[in-house]
Amino acid sequence: MEGKAPGKRLLAVVLMAVWLSGCAGSSSVAEPPRQMLVAVAPGPALNETLAMLMEQGYVVTQADGELGRIDASLARPPGYRLEARVEPAGASGASVSLQGYRGGRRLPPAVVEPLFVELQGRLAR
Fold this sequence. Notes:
alpha+beta; 6-stranded antiparallel sheet; 38% helix; elongated; Lipoprotein
C-alpha cells in the first residue's frame, strides 16, 4: 500500500500544476477597441483625431484618409502603439475607434479613455 502513495502524490502534483498553469495564462478573449459615435463627418473627425494625437506627443507612423486609419506610437513612457479608425456612421456621422497595444498585446480600453474625452471636447466645438 505504501508503494502506491508516491504515485498518487505525483499524479496529484502534476494535475495541480496543469490546473494552475491554466489560471496563470493570459485570456484568449480580446476586448474590442474602445469606440464612440460622433455627429461629425468622417473626414473632419479623422483630421481632428490626427491633430490631437500629434499634440499629445504621438508619432504618426501611418495615416490614410481613404482608409480612415491612423497608426501612431507614444513617444514618451509608457510607450505603446495606437490604432485609430474612423468610419462613416449614419447620414452625417462617424464612428471613431481607438486601440492601444504594447508588446503585441491589446491594452485595456481605459488606457485610451482620456483620448476619447479630449476628442469629444474637440469635436463638440
